[in-house]
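Weekly sync, protein design subgroup
Attendees: M.S., D.O., the rotation student, P.L. (late)

Item 1: inverse folding check
M.S. brought a backbone from last month's batch and wanted to see whether the design step gives back something sensible before we order anything. D.O. pointed out we never logged the input encoding, so this time it goes straight into the notes. C-alpha cells as presented (545 positions):
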C-alpha cells in the first residue's frame, strides 16, 4: 500500500510540472507550487503516521472529487472505466449484453433491456438486480462493476441476479451492441415525419439525415424532431444535425472563455437537406447541451417552432485532457451561446448562495435578444419554447419520484401483476393511480421541498441566536401546512405523474419501440406539434411575432 502512495505522489509532482508548463502565463504560478507542496507533504504525513491503515488511492480520490465539486458538476476526474464508458456512448457501439444498468448499493440494477440483444434473449428484465458476474460479487465494487459484463463477441458470462426477491442464474453470450442515435421514426397519417433523436453520438447526423430523407421519399411534407430527454453529446453532430434544415455557412453556436483559444464560432459546413420544410422541435427539461444548441439555433434563426418546456440549461463546454494511466480530466473550458447571443447555461457556479449552491438567474434579470425575424427571446438558461406545454414540465414531486426510483420500482411491480397487450391502446388509469398512491404509503415515500430546507436552515439560525423557542410554534404550524400541501400536490400533478408512469410501464413491456408507438398515439406534445404544423397561418404567426 505504501508503494501505491509513492506512485501517486510521483504522479502529483509530475502534474505540478505540467501545471507550470500549461499555466505559465498565469501570475499565480507560485501560489500553485506552494499549495502542491503543502498538499503532498500533508498527504505523505497522513499515509505514514495515521493511527489506522489508510488507502492512499481512496484518499486521493476523495481529495480530487472534493476539489472538482467546488467548480461545477461537469468538471470530473475520469477513471479508465469512465473513459471507456464515454467512448462507448460517443461511438454508439460496444460488445456486451445489451442493457442499461446503474450501480445501486450492492447490486447492478437493470433499468432497460435492449430488444433482441443478449440480455433480452436471456430473459433479463428491467428491475432485475445483478449480484454476481461470474464468481465476482458486485458488492466488492464501489463503481465499475459494469465493465465485467463487457468482453469479446460470442464470449459467455454467467450472471446471478434477483427478481422479485428470488435469486436466479443465467448464462449470456455477448454480442456487438449498437446504441442508435435515432431509435425510431415514422410517417404519421397527416404526412408529418416524426423523428426521435435520443443522443448526439457519432451517428447522430448520419441517422437523422437518413430518416429525414426516407420520410420525405414516403411523402412527408413537415417534420417533427423530438429531442425530449436527449442529454446531448458531440458538438460537431449538433452542428451537422442543425445543418439538415439550415443553409451552409449559418452560425449555430459560439463559445466564450477567459482563455482566448477557446473563443470560437461554429458554422454549418454541409449542403442542407431541406431549408423550407415546416419544422417543429420538441424539448423538455431533460433536453440538454447539444439538444439546446440545435433547438436554440432553430429558434434564433426562425427556422422552426420549438414546443415543450424550458430545456435543462447545460451550456458549459467540456474537453477531456489526458492525465496518466489511462485516466482523464473532463474540464469545463467555455460556455455555449446561441446565434442571437444568449448563454445557454442556467446556473452560475461562479456565484454561490449561503449554502454553497450555484445561483440561478432571476426572471427579472433576464436579458432580451432578437431572432433573425426580430422576435424577442430571453436568456436565463436553457431554451424557452415558442409554445409551452405543462405536460412537458416536471414538478418538484415528479422529480423526487424519479430520483428516488419510486416510479421505476412501481412499474417493475406492475409488470409482474398485470397483462398489457397493446402499447398503442394502453393507458394508465385513475384506478392505477390510486394504487400507486397506496404503494407510496407502503414504502414511506417522502421528499423535501426547497421551502422545507429553508425553514430548517432558519430554525438552525434561530437556535444559534437564541430565538428557537420564540419561533418553534410557528415553525410547527408552517410544517403542518407544507405536509398538507405536499399530500395535495400528488393529486394536483396527477396527469403529469400518470404520464411518466405510463411511459415507464410501457418500456417495461414493449421496449423503446413500444414507448414511441404510444407517444405517436397519445403524446400531448406530438399532438400540439401536429396542430401547429397543420395550421400554416399559426405556424407563420409564431415565427413572426
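Designed sequence read out in the meeting:
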Amino acid at each position: 500500500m505504501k508503494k501505491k502512495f509513492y506512485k501517486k505522489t510521483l504522479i502529483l509532482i509530475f502534474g505540478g510540472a505540467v501545471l507550470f508548463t500549461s499555466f505559465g502565463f498565469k501570475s499565480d504560478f507560485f501560489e500553485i507550487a506552494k499549495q502542491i507542496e503543502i498538499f503532498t507533504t500533508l498527504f505523505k504525513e497522513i499515509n505514514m503516521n495515521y493511527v489506522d491503515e489508510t488507502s492512499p488511492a481512496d484518499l486521493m480520490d476523495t481529495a480530487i472529487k472534493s476539489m472538482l465539486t467546488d467548480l461545477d458538476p461537469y468538471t470530473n476526474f475520469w477513471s479508465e472505466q469512465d473513459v471507456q464508458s464515454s467512448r462507448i456512448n460517443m461511438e454508439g457501439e460496444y460488445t456486451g449484453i445489451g442493457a442499461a444498468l446503474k450501480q445501486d448499493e450492492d447490486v447492478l440494477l437493470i433499468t432497460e433491456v435492449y430488444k433482441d440483444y443478449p440480455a433480452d434473449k436471456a430473459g433479463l428484465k428491467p428491475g432485475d438486480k445483478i449480484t454476481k458476474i461470474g464468481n465476482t460479487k458486485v458488492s466488492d465494487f464501489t463503481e465499475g462493476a459494469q465493465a465485467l459484463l463487457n468482453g469479446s463477441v460470442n464470449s459467455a458470462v454467467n450472471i446471478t441476479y434477483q427478481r422479485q426477491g428470488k435469486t436466479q442464474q443465467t448464462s449470456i453470450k455477448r454480442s456487438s451492441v449498437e446504441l442508435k442515435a435515432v431509435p425510431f421514426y415514422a410517417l404519421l397519417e397527416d404526412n408529418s415525419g416524426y423523428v426521435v433523436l435520443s443522443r448526439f453520438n457519432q451517428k447522430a447526423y448520419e441517422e437523422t439525415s437518413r430518416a429525414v430523407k426516407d420520410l420525405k421519399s414516403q411523402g412527408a411534407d413537415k417534420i417533427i424532431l423530438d429531442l425530449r430527454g436527449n442529454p446531448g453529446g458531440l458538438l460537431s453532430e449538433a452542428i451537422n444535425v442543425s445543418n439538415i434544415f439550415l443553409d451552409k455557412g449559418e452560425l449555430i453556436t459560439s463559445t466564450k472563455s477567459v482563455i482566448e483559444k477557446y473563443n470560437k464560432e461554429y458554422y454549418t459546413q454541409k449542403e442542407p437537406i431541406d431549408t423550407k420544410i415546416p419544422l417543429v422541435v420538441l424539448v423538455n427539461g431533460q433536453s440538454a447541451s447539444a439538444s439546446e444548441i440545435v433547438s436554440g439555433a432553430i429558434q434564433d434563426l426562425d427556422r422552426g417552432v420549438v414546443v415543450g418546456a424550458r430545456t435543462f440549461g447545460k451550456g458549459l463546454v467540456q474537453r477531456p485532457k489526458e492525465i496518466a494511466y489511462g485516466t482523464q480530466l473532463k474540464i469545463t473550458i467555455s460556455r455555449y451561446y446561441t446565434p442571437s447571443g444568449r448563454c445557454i447555461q442556467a446556473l452560475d457556479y461562479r456565484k454561490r448562495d449561503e449554502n454553497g449552491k450555484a445561483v440561478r438567474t432571476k426572471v427579472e434579470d433576464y436579458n432580451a435578444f432578437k431572432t433573425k425575424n426580430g422576435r424577442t427571446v430571453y436568456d436565463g438558461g436553457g431554451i424557452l419554447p415558442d409554445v409551452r406545454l405543462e405536460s412537458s414540465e416536471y414538478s418538484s414531486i415528479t422529480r423526487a419520484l424519479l430520483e428516488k426510483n419510486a416510479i421505476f420500482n412501481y412499474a417493475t411491480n406492475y409488470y409482474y401483476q398485470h397483462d398489457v397487450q397493446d402499447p398503442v391502446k394502453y393507458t394508465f388509469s385513475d384506478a392505477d393511480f390510486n394504487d400507486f398512491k397506496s404503494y407510496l404509503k407502503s414504502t414511506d415515500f417522502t421528499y423535501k421541498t426547497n421551502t422545507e430546507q429553508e425553514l430548517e436552515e432558519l430554525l438552525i439560525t434561530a437556535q444559534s441566536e437564541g430565538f428557537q423557542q420564540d419561533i418553534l410554534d410557528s415553525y410547527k404550524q408552517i410544517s403542518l401546512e407544507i405536509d398538507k400541501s405536499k399530500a395535495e400536490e400528488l393529486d394536483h400533478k396527477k396527469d403529469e405523474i400518470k404520464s411518466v408512469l405510463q411511459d415507464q410501464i410501457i418500456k417495461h413491456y414493449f421496449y423503446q419501440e413500444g414507448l414511441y408507438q404510444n407517444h405517436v398515439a397519445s403524446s400531448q406534445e406530438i399532438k400540439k406539434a401536429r396542430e401547429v404544423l397543420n395550421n400554416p397561418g399559426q405556424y407563420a404567426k409564431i415565427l413572426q411575432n
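Discussion: The chain has five domains: 2-70, 93-178, 184-392, 396-446+493-524, 450-491. Residues 1-25 have pLDDT under 50 and may be disordered.
Action: P.L. to compare against the previous round before Friday.
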